[in-house]
Inverse folding.
């Protein structure tokens, strides 16, 4: 590469790693920084500067390469190196159970219990009455049975694991009958037929996409039928000329032929959402009351707890599932159990639970509460001339593949800043610290105040003021 004289000069001015390293010895705030982080940060900074000299020399001056200004850049690099990759952000998308953004926020009681249990020894697998080895699920089995009405219960890593484990226990090498209308794919490549193939269960599809009748199931039953599976079509809806078999009818058929019936409820909720002017989502209690042998559902969707897969049902089948060696590979950890027990505890008060569990609170809160948050933001930004904010009546989504047709009326801020395109604004907010994630709708940057917590409004105000100030410079 041919370097001009200016570039050669600049390259010679680049400070040496050792010299900068020495300077940091006198920086009181940096004593705790590990040497490896310090050297890495210095090397990286100098490397970036060298690259700029070579590729974009106009952007670099002697001034950029003085020790003082390099030290400033190294400090920024150290900050980046020392911060965690997994970090909190502000969800302004209006999607309450947002799988990419961590699904459910835990209730305070669950957070407190995680920090209590995780720093100390516990009776995770120790029976304090008998003084010997105990069972991991015992902390949550009773309460799960009490809330759902089931005989027995356990929990694994997530609902995908729960489905896998149940199919493997009850249907490996046997036929599992599923309606063609329920061969669900959820995000992240979880497909019922593929999961089934992994367990060695043989998928027996019955009916058609839009209509499946009881006789379809009955005609498919053979000597090697191990299971009838019902899957809640959580993330889509088949409408029009449709027919499906109710869980109750399927349970009766299963009873007649001594074939267990399992249901994958997906979200799984203990709350009847129709009480809150929303579309009804089948509840776990209803499935248990219909006589299902096994139900599986997620811990972090509509339940509002930690990531977990919950299995409730008849003791006869749960006993078999608990003995499957796969449970060891799919087992739930102590932090999750701590959060789960605390979350389930909140369901003992069904009136209050929609306040104490953040996911339920965000889904059922009043429109005026959301408006109040939006207006607070609007007022704080009013004095800025270069920003225009409109409060709009738009809709939030439940997310997590739950209640796909449900549009929940919400209050959103549509934000425009002079000379910044909506996409550029979206990017600026996403790259802010903490990141603020909105959505683009009708070519406007939108923040939905349903999923924005009260304490976050100030953080958003600061972010916008910061952007506006930098524009003015
Ligand atoms: C979400 C979902 C799953 C997977 O649950 P995870 O907890 O995400 O593993 C399985 N089945 C259905 C029907 C679902 O909606």
């Amino acid at each position: 590469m041919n370097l001009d004289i200016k570039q050669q000069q600049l390259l010679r001015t680049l400070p040496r790693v050792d010299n900068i390293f020495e300077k940091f010895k006198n920086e009181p705030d940096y004593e705790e920084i590990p040497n490896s982080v310090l050297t890495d940060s210095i090397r990286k900074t100098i490397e970036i500067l060298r690259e700029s000299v070579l590729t974009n020399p106009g952007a670099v001056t002697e001034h950029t390469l003085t020790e003082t200004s390099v030290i400033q850049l190294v400090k920024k690099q150290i900050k980046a190196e020392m911060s965690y990759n997994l970090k909190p952000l502000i969800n302004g998308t209006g999607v309450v159970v947002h799988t990419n953004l961590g699904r459910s926020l835990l209730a305070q009681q669950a957070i407190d219990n995680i920090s209590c249990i995780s720093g100390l020894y516990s009776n995770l697998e120790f029976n304090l009455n008998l003084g010997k080895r105990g069972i991991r699920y015992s902390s949550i089995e009773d309460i799960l049975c009490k809330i759902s009405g089931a005989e027995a219960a356990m929990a694994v890593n997530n609902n995908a694991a729960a489905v896998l484990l149940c199919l493997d226990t009850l249907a490996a090498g046997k036929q599992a009958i599923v309606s063609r209308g329920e061969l669900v794919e959820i995000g992240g490549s979880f497909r019922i037929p593929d999961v089934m193939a992994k367990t060695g269960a043989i998928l027996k599809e019955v009916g058609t996409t839009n209509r499946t009748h009881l006789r379809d199931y009955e005609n498919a039953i053979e000597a090697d039928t191990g299971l009838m599976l019902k899957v809640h079509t959580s993330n889509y809806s088949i409408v029009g000329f449709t027919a499906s078999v109710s869980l109750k009818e399927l349970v009766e058929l299963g009873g007649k032929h001594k074939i267990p019936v399992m249901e994958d409820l997906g979200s799984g909720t203990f709350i009847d959402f129709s009480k809150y002017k929303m579309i009804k989502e089948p509840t776990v209690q209803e499935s248990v009351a219909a006589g299902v042998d096994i139900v599986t559902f997620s811990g972090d969707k509509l339940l509002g707890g930690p990531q977990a897969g919950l299995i409730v049902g008849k003791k006869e089948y749960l006993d078999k599932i608990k003995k499957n060696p796969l449970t060891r590979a799919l087992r739930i950890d102590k932090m999750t159990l701590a959060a789960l027990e605390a979350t389930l505890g909140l369901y003992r008060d069904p009136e209050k639970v929609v306040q104490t569990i953040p996911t339920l609170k965000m889904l059922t809160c009043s429109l005026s509460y959301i408006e109040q948050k939006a207006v607070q933001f609007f007022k704080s930004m009013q004095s800025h001339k270069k920003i225009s904010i409109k409060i709009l009546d738009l809709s939030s989504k439940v997310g997590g593949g739950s209640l796909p047709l449900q549009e929940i009326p919400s209050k959103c801020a549509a934000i425009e800043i002079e000379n910044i395109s909506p996409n550029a604004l979206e990017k600026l907010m996403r790259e802010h610290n903490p990141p603020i994630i909105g959505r683009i709708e009708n070519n406007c940057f939108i923040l939905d105040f349903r999923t924005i917590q009260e304490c976050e409004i100030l953080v958003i105000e600061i972010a916008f003021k910061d952007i506006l100030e930098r524009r003015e410079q």
